[in-house]
Amino acid sequence: MNLPFYIARRYLFSKKSHNAINIISMVSVCGVVVATIALICTLSVYNGFSDLVFSLFSDFDPELKITPRTGKVFDPGTNAFQQVRELPEVWVVGEVLEDNALVRYKERQDIVVVKGVDEQFDRLTHIDRVLLDGEFLLQDEVVNYAMLGIGLAYSLGINVGFVSPLEIYAPKRDERVNMTNPATSFNLEYAYISAVFRVNQQIYDENYMLVPLSLARELFRYETEVSALELKLADKTDVEAVKKQIRSILGEEYLVQDRYEQQEASFRMMQIEKWMTFLILSFILAIALFNVVGSLCMLMIEKQGDVRTLKNMGADHSLIRRIFLFEGWMISGFGAVIGIGIGVILCFLQQEFGWLQLGQTTDAFIINAYPVRVELSDIIAVFVTVISIGFLSAWYPVRYLWKRLLQ
């Protein structure tokens, strides 16, 4: 066994002549344990909320979305897009035309995002899971229908079954506004409400309205153009591999985005919050490890006799310094291992039983308990952080207090 490590281990677990040294050592270990548990649990909760947000977006966003890198619309009938449609991994392809418009219902009006979709949309997404009222219906033999986000429906004061249609206005492209009669500068279409949906994401619930693709083309004056192609892939398909294949077919003129990339701003903000919290807790961990400095100083004072004995037996200064370095590292190392173990157990218990609730009222939130997901990369990051800070906290007293206390 390595001699410095063996002696350091004996120093850590053996009884000291002054009980205060044992207490400070145990406080140091407990401080590392608590801080490590906090790091593991906090990062796991952020992972859980990230999964929750992803599941909410997946009800409305397609697996892959193709959009032009420049401009609003493109022609989906080219040979390149025909190759994409014929890929064996591509199960469903939906055409989308999306733009801003003014919606009016009686005396109320609002600026909305009109998303024209075809009949494949309910196969592309899980729209049926987010419908609060009504059914997925775009048009029949007589009229067109619209599906509104719950916030937008509330703003317009409309619901499923209302007999009056919505008025949808969009400015005519490539035409100047007629100042004498501005109404002639707008295209007008009508749609009856068929459903209200709730994605639990403000961007959709308060701004989006689904309409038939044909109505959107009439409203915005397009013939065959679309603003996006939305794809659903076959089960157990490698999304990244298909994305790269489609990019190679279409070239640099088009963006091919998965669900994370479609909502990049939201997920990036969650990642920033996660690692900023990690940084703050790391500072707390560093403060907790200041106890190691005091523990090592008192231990070096108490063990001056042992140091003289080791010197007389031929031990050099390097070996003696390593003894006290190992002592400090073991405090942080044991604390890290114990804290990670307890933190992972607590996360799995929360995942299984949901003991920590979001609120006292049942069904007041989307979920009742805090979601958690433990990632191996987070465990490694926490362990490396604890060990690194523990190394610095042990290195300082041994490096700078050595000559004063032990020489």
Write the layout of secondary structure elements.
Layout: H1 3-13, H2 19-58, E1 64-68, H3 79-85, E2 90-105, E3 108-117, H4 121-124, H5 127-130, E4 131-134, E5 145-149, H6 150-156, E6 166-171, E7 186-197, H7 202-205, E8 208-212, H8 213-220, E9 228-233, H9 239-250, E10 254-257, H10 259-262, H11 264-288, H12 290-302, H13 304-312, H14 317-353, H15 376-400, H16 402-406
Parallel strand pairs: 3-8, 5-7
Antiparallel strand pairs: 1-9, 1-10, 2-3, 2-6, 2-9, 4-7, 5-8, 6-7
Helix pairs in contact: 1-14, 2-11, 2-12, 2-14, 2-15, 12-14, 12-15, 14-15
**Overall pLDDT:** 84
* Shape, per Cα inertia axes: elongated
> How large is the radius of gyration?
32 Å
Q: What can be said about the biggest beta sheet?
A: 6 strands, mixed, barrel
As a percent range, the share of strand residues is 15-25%
* SSE string, helices as H and strands as E: HHEHEEHHEEHEEHEHEHEHHHHHHH
Q: Helical region count?
A: 16
Strand order of the largest sheet: 2-3-8-5-7-6
Find the structural class using helix and strand composition: alpha+beta
The helix content is: 40-55%
> Low-confidence segments, ≥5 residues, pLDDT <50?
none
Number of strands: 10
| Span of the ends, CA to CA | 27 Å
Summarize the structure.
This protein has 407 residues and is of the alpha+beta class.
Q: How would you portray this structure in words?
A:
This protein is α+β, with helices and mostly antiparallel strands and 407 residues long. Strands 2-3-8-5-7-6 form a 6-stranded mixed barrel. It has helices spanning 3-13, 19-58, 79-85, 121-124, 127-130, 150-156, 202-205, 213-220, 239-250, 259-262, 264-288, 290-302, 304-312, 317-353, 376-400, 402-406; strands at 64-68, 90-105, 108-117, 131-134, 145-149, 166-171, 186-197, 208-212, 228-233, 254-257.
